[in-house]
Amino acid sequence: MATSVDRTTICVALVGNPNVGKSTLFNALCGLRQRVGNYPGVTVEKKLGTAELGDCPCTVIDLPGTYSLAPHSPDEMVAVNVLLGRQDSQDSPNAIVAVVDASNLQRNLYLVSQLLELERPVVLALNMTDLAENRGITIDVERLESQLKIPVVPLQANRKQGVDRLRSHLAEAIQAQYAEQLPQHECFPAALVAEVDALQEQLASQHLPRYLIERLLLDTSGYLQNELLLAGDSAIGDQLAAARARLAEQGHPVPAVEAVARYDWVSQMLDGVVTAPSQRVVTLSDRVDRVLTHRVWGTLVFMLLMLLVFRSVFSWAEPGMMLIETGTDYVSSLVDARLADGAFKSLLLDGVIAGVGGVLVFLPQIFILFLLIGVLEDCGYMARAAYLMDKLMVRVGLSGKSFIPLLSSFACAIPGIMAARVIEKRRDRLTTILVAPLMSCSARLPVYTLLIAAFIPDHMLVGGLLSLQGAVMFSMYLLGILVAVVVALVLKKTLLRGETPPFVMELPSYKIPSLRNVAWRMCERGWAFVRRAGTIIFAVSVVVWAAAYYPHDPAQVDAGIWQRLDEIDATLKDSPSDLAQVAALNEERAALANRVDGIYLRTSYLGRAGRAIEPVVEPLGWDWRIGCAAIASFPAREVVVGTLGVLYNLGDQDEESTALREKLTAATHDATGQKVFNIPVALSLMVFFALCAQCAATLAIMKRETGAWRWPLFTFTYMTTLAYVAAWATYQIGMRLLG
Amino acid sequence: MTKLSDLTVGDAARVIEITGQDQVATRLLEMGLTAGADVTLLGVAPLGDPIELELRGYRLSVRRAEAQRVRIERV
After folding, report:
1. Nearest by CB to A502, which of B27, B32, B56?
2. How many domains does chain B have?
3. Half-sphere exposure of A543 (CA within 13 A, CB side)
4. Nearest chain B residue (CA) to A280
5. ipTM of the complex model
6. Which domains does chain A possess?
7. A32: phi then psi, degrees, rounded to nearest 5
8. A22 near A101, Cβ under 8 Å?
9. pLDDT at position A11 over 80
10. How far apart are CA A104 and CA B39, in angstroms?
11. In this predicted model, what pLDDT tens digit does every residue of A503-562 receive, in sequence order?
12. pLDDT tens per residue across span B53-72
């Protein structure tokens, strides 16, 4: 059967509008045999899978959903290049599967009319036939097939119905490419065809596919002319302009001519194929939509839903986070008990386990957030959220599509940054990504909790309605939002200058979310986080550990301490019968061990760095220990709590610890003996952590999503600068008012 | 001259043309707002912008700024 085709090089591409169930079909075809990557230099996700066609294994490329194959940017160019076999390291597809929504053939066939010009066999996958049925739409599949002259396969990809038939039709189509000529497809007026012919002759030396020549004529943005390296050729530019002028004279103005011609062709193809009820059936989806986009109810439901998402992320994640923390503690205690003290043990405990545990602890939140985002996406609500919020976001120079990524960032910036993929315009996607880390994520909570509990008086305001502590916590969140608004506005006026992006968005029909799809996407994105962020955090944690551990010189510790430790050990060895004495000795021993740890840390490279930067952090009201803790918390900001504990000789502490709270309130400057912490210092530290970019994982994901290190570097620089200036202002103003 | 942005909720209209030749115009055309297409204004977002349209059997939302680019006649 498939003898004429090399087994390994068969490849098909899935193309279709957004929301037509393309990913569902991809999963149904390939199952678990799929991998996700990125096309080099762009932010387009590269999804490849393997499917069986008849008896041949075949590579399936899942291209991002699109309404039209008219590239205006490098991201949009990828799909065209892949389909035409011009993308490096990619075989040209032997066949194209055009996935269409049966309930909305008119608009879906627009893209198909472009696909038919790519000189590849096309199979039409008529998906969501159940949805069409619900709307009372019937489709004469045989007639559609004979009109289009390509195989048409009705499908319900979510129930895996029709997938086998699609496979066999694909296998046949691939054979047919070698057996016979492809059906000729032409939907343009003769005048346009003649212009394309003339251009093709002229550009013969470039060996461009006819489709690209046609696009060159139709693309008024000039992008394609640049992309195809014809920019320097001013003669071509003049010719294109002249050709467009001639077409306009004949009543075929560019760019309208393309849409008019294609939609006319679509009407011809659908003539006698689709029977829809003359009176549109009011579906459940319509009724739901009427409520969800209602002025009052829609807004109310939206706010409740966002609150629910937000609360669930925190409350549902709680047991999972506790489990992971317990697990990490258990592994730590195992290592602690089995290994002798020394550098290796410290590396395992404080570097590896603490570092990896620090990443893992956020996994439940990230997974739950991905799950909820997936459900909202799959049921069609995400588009409504963008619709409802657009006006608000326009004021910041963004569009409604930025809302969900920014909201997600309150739980964790990583899923937020990854959710920004839905934003088509690169500039707006970048702005969203760059301000996302300013939203107060859950890793800032331990820092806020500790400092607020320790230093903010427990007053009640507004007659007991609001506590001062709660107000301070709320202002930290508000600060992040306000700064994000300002930064977004500034970015849109300077670095990422551009008009407010247009908002032309389909509002898809609501549907019951497919559990399999949602779970699949959750695992895929969650795993991407573990792999990319995990490795970076791991590496950085080890580096910070080394800086905090070495040189680890026992000579730096007062001899008296060593002596006393030896004495205690000797006494304990004799197992004295007085239990109270044993307890007292153990306590003293632990206190001394903490002091030794404190001295080691103070004399470590990190400690020295902390002292070196003391003049820099002094204007913020910080002593060298806080400076140290800020440096050590570069991999993950919540580390600052534990580091403060070690620095103030308490051993590792968590934010609930009263000992740490008391120690912080009692801490004094080495030289002057004055208290280190007061309200302005605590506020300045909180403000710093509200605005700084101390999260290696976020920076790593940012690199992945933007494709370059310069954006995470830029973000780190601008956020650290802002954090420093704001912390300085907070301290100085606080001292004037309170000091 | 009537524009798509002039409609009130429930109004039906027919597209005459899109003004301009930029990417926004191309986008509107691709989404089916070509001469002769029927559109109905289904609703307005709670904050007054964007608007929700029905055309060619599906729902599309555009901002008023984009809707101003669409010349229509009422039917």
Report:
1. B27
2. 1
3. 12
4. B57
5. 0.95
6. 7-179 (3.40.50.300), 190-251 (no CATH)
7. -85, -10
8. no
9. yes
10. 15
11. 888 998 888 888 888 888 888 878 877 776 677 777 777 888 888 888 888 888 888 888
12. 999 989 999 999 999 999 99
Task: Output the pTM of the full model.
Answer: 0.81
Q: If we measure between CA atoms, which residue out of A712, A681, A689, A688 comes closest to residue A443?
A: A689
Question: Least CA distance to B23: which residue of chain A?
Answer: A221
| A583 compared with A432, residue with greater pLDDT | A432
Q: Provide the token pair at A390.
A: 């657009």
Measured in residues, chain B has a length of 75
Region of poorest pLDDT, from A138-142, A147-151, A537-541? A537-541
As a whole number of angstroms, the distance between CA A49 and CA A34 comes to 4
Residue numbers in A near B45 (CB within 8 A) = 293, 387-388, 390-391
**CA torsion angle for A711, A713, A718, A721 (degrees, to 10)?**
180
Q: Do the beta carbons of residue B58 and residue A137 sit within 8 Å?
A: no
Residue of chain A with shortest Cα separation from B24:
A502
pLDDT of A670 reads: 67
CATH for B45 = 2.30.30.90
Choose the mutation target among A263, A395, A499 for the interface with B, i.e. most B CBs under 10 Å.
A263
CB A687 within 8 A of CB A730: yes
Distance from CA of B21 to the nearest CA of A (A): 6
* A107/B59 touch (CB, cutoff 8 Å), yes or no: no
Residue from A134, A299, A503 whose CB has the most chain B CBs within 10 Å, to mutate = A503
Q: Is A66 helix (H, G, I), strand (E, B) or coil?
A: coil
**Most confident stretch, A18-32, A550-564, A720-734:** A720-734
> How is A624-650 classified by DSSP, letter by letter?
HHHHHHHHHTSSBTTHHHHHHHHHTTS
How far apart CA A707 and CA A701 sit, in angstroms, is 10
Highest mean pLDDT among A291-295, A357-361, A466-470, A729-733: A729-733
**CA-to-CA separations, B37 to A17, A464, A555, A696, B17, in angstroms, rounded:** 20, 60, 86, 51, 10
Q: How far is B22 from chain A (nearest CA, A)?
A: 7
Which of A504, A505, A509 to mutate to probe the B interface, most B CBs <10 Å?
Answer: A504
User: Cα–Cα distance between A104 and B56 in angstroms, integer?
Assistant: 8
Residue numbers in A near B43 (CB within 8 A): 290, 293
Which two tokens mark B39? 């559109």
Residues of B in contact with A387 (CB under 8 A): 45, 50, 52, 61
Is the sign of the CA dihedral A17, A21, A26, A32 positive or negative?
A: positive
- Once rounded to an integer, what is the mean pLDDT over residues A440-466? 79
Helix extents (H) in A497-613: 515-549, 559-573, 579-603, 605-612
Name the residue range of residue B17's domain.
4-74
User: Average model confidence (pLDDT) for chain B?
Assistant: 92
How far apart (Å, rounded) are the C-alpha atoms in residues A621 and A730? 10
- Do the chains contact at B21 and A68, CB–CB below 8 Å? no
Comparing A517 with A117, the larger pLDDT belongs to A117
Q: Do A110 and B18 touch (CB under 8 A)?
A: no
What mean pLDDT comes out for the span A637-660? 70
Q: Are A700 and A533 in contact (CB under 8 A)?
A: yes
Contact B46 A255 (CB under 8 A): no
Please say if the pLDDT value at position A8 is more than 60. no
What percent of chain A shows pLDDT beyond 90?
A: 25
